[in-house]
């Protein structure tokens, strides 16, 4: 019995020793000549591998060290991706039954560099492909049917972890190349496997903004078809929290995004604002089907009112076509001007806007050429600071003795009109302004470069017209229907407008009034046609002619 126990202990000792020495006895590197070409063919990349060996502790598996995937030579000679080590742990029980079930995958210090060249092609486009790939005019990116998600699902991974990762994106397409970096990437995915709904945790830092981002939630269940029936995530961008829910079925992605509050000061991009503002109750719904992305609905409360929008975009093209509609209701223009900032003129009031747009390309030069669409706007109970339209109009009447108003603002009850956008120009088809002292109508254009070319007519109120006519009898010449009318031409820019009399309109009006006066005077003269020569009627006729011709 004693010998039996000693023999069993010896066997157990040898077995343990064999297990401990197994990673050193089995050299997996000798098989690189067999599996390296397979991996390189699958990735369409050359790879470098420092070491690969079996592991026993903390779990049975394989450790790959110093793994490098070289980049496409058309982009650069450096690595596309690398990692310090890759640990794959398998379950011991199924392994004894000759089944391999992956329990855990750990990637340490993965580094990936994505490059977009001057032609708009990324080094991702040739990963797993032969030759450089570029999309045709109407051809979207091909679907990634054999992507990493499917591979992980088929592996039945219980846990996937990434620590110390770094992702760099270099855009060499614009005139001034840009680089964005995600560093300190931490990823933890649990319950990765077919039929399971993984829990997700991602944390990283965006540079150079030094913006922390987090993603927490669930998405699944995982299927071989890559359909995801449920997406429920909380995305944190610094101080901003977004709730994202939706699904991805048969290639159609549907997402609903909400946020209780977003302050522009917390956004990861710098906006050209003088003062940050807060947007509340953000709600948007997005669908993506192939190359077609549609904003089904967007609503957000800001500046005391509400913005709603919808539209669509065809992506994957150098100049993507788009269309959309924007509506504003109850927007307070005063806070808008404070946020945007203005050196001279500013406007206050409650605004409403309904604008339909379509165009091609998202860069400013493209928008200046292709953006077009009709719209309608209205502003109530407001003031234009820095511009007094009445003052500018009456200043043009100085030759007839009208003193301009001293105030440097225009108070109005309503401004409304129709507009059309085309080739970088906003055309006002009908613009009306109603104020206590005048009513104005205008047509003309406003360029994206802020240049003005407007023709306007100010019809002063009866009270103001009579007051001006009383101070300057000559002003009666410009009156019609008891009101003084001033035709204007407004040129220059929105920050430095220039005002002048519309001489053509003045001339036409003068001719019309001159004809009316001739008819009136001749009518009076003809009435005295039967008066005896040298009598009172003849004297009256002479007085009329003198008054008519100024003699």
What are the SSEs and their pairings?
Layout: H1 2-25, H2 32-43, E1 47-55, E2 61-70, E3 79-90, H3 92-96, E4 102-108, E5 111-116, H4 148-155, E6 159-171, E7 178-190, E8 199-207, E9 211-220, E10 228-237, E11 240-249, E12 252-263, E13 278-289, E14 292-302, E15 305-314, E16 321-332, H5 333-340, E17 346-360, H6 364-370, E18 372-385, H7 389-395, E19 409-422, E20 425-434, E21 438-447, E22 452-460, H8 462-471, E23 479-480, E24 483-492, E25 497-501, H9 503-527, H10 536-549
Parallel strand pairs: 4-6, 5-6
Antiparallel strand pairs: 1-2, 2-3, 3-4, 3-5, 6-7, 7-8, 8-9, 9-10, 10-11, 11-12, 12-13, 13-14, 14-15, 15-16, 16-17, 17-18, 18-19, 19-20, 20-21, 21-22, 22-24, 23-24, 24-25
Helix pairs in contact: 9-10
Spatial shape: elongated
Proportion in helices: 10-25%
Average pLDDT: 79
Low-confidence stretches: 13-22, 131-137, 139-154, 530-534, 540-551
Strand segment tally? 25
Oligomer classification? single chain
What's the story with the biggest beta sheet? Answer: 25 strands, mixed
Number of helices: 10
Strand content: over 45%
Structural class: alpha+beta
Radius of gyration: 39 Å
Instruction: Give the N-to-C terminal Cα separation.
Output: 152 Å
């Amino acid at each position: 019995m004693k010998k039996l126990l000693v023999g069993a202990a010896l066997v157990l000792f040898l077995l343990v020793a064999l297990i401990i020495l197994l990673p050193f006895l089995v050299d997996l590197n000798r098989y690189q000549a067999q599996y390296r070409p397979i991996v390189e063919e699958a990735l369409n990349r050359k790879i470098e591998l420092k070491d690969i060996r079996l592991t026993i502790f903390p779990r049975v598996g394989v450790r790959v060290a110093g793994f490098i995937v070289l980049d496409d030579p058309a982009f650069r000679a450096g690595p596309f991706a690398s990692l310090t080590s890759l640990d794959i742990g398998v379950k011991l029980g199924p392994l004894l039954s000759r089944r391999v079930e992956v329990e855990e995958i750990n990637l340490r210090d993965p580094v990936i560099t994505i490059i977009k060249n001057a032609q708009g092609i990324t080094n991702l486009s040739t990963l797993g492909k032969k030759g450089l790939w570029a999309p045709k005019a109407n051809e979207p990116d091909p679907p990634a049917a054999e992507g990493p998600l499917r591979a992980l699902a088929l592996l039945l991974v219980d846990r996937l972890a990434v620590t110390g990762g770094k992702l760099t994106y270099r855009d060499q397409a614009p005139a001034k190349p840009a680089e964005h970096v995600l560093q300190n990437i931490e990823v933890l995915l649990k319950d990765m496997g077919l039929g399971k709904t993984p829990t997700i945790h991602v944390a990283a830092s965006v540079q150079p903004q030094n913006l922390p981002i987090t993603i927490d939630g669930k998405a699944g269940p995982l299927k071989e078809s890559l359909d995801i029936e449920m997406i429920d995530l909380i995305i944190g961008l610094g101080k901003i929290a977004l709730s994202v829910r939706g699904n991805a079925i048969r290639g159609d992605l549907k997402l609903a995004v909400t946020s209780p509050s977003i302050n522009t000061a917390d956004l990861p991009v710098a906006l050209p604002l003088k003062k940050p503002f807060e947007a509340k109750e953000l709600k948007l719904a997005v669908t993506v089907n192939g190359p077609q992305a549609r904003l089904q609905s967007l609503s957000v409360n800001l500046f005391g009112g509400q913005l709603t929008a919808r539209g669509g975009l065809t992506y994957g093209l150098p100049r993507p076509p788009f269309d959309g509609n924007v509506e504003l209701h109850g927007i307070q223009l005063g806070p808008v001007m404070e946020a945007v900032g203005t050196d001279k003129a500013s406007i206050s009031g409650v605004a409403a806007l309904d604008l339909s747009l379509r165009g091609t390309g998202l860069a400013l030069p493209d928008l200046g050429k292709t953006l077009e669409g009709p719209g309608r706007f209205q502003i109530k109970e407001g003031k234009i600071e820095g511009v007094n339209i009445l003052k500018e109009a009456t200043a043009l009447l100085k030759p007839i003795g009208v003193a301009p108003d001293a105030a440097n603002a225009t108070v109005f009850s309503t401004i409304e009109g129709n507009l059309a956008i085309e080739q970088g120009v906003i055309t006002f088809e009908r613009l009306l302004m109603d104020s206590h002292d005048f009513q104005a109508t205008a047509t003309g254009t406003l360029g994206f470069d802020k240049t003005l070319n407007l023709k306007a007519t100010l019809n002063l109120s009866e009270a103001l017209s009579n007051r001006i006519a009383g101070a300057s009898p000559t002003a009666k010449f410009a009156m019609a229907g008891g009101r003084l009318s001033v035709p204007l031409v407004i040129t220059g820019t929105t920050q430095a407008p220039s005002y002048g009399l519309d001489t053509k309109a003045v001339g036409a009006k003068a001719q019309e009034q001159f004809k009316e006066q001739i008819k009136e005077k001749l009518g009076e003269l003809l009435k005295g046609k039967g008066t005896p020569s040298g009598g009172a009627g003849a004297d009256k006729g002479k007085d009329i002619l003198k008054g008519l011709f100024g003699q």
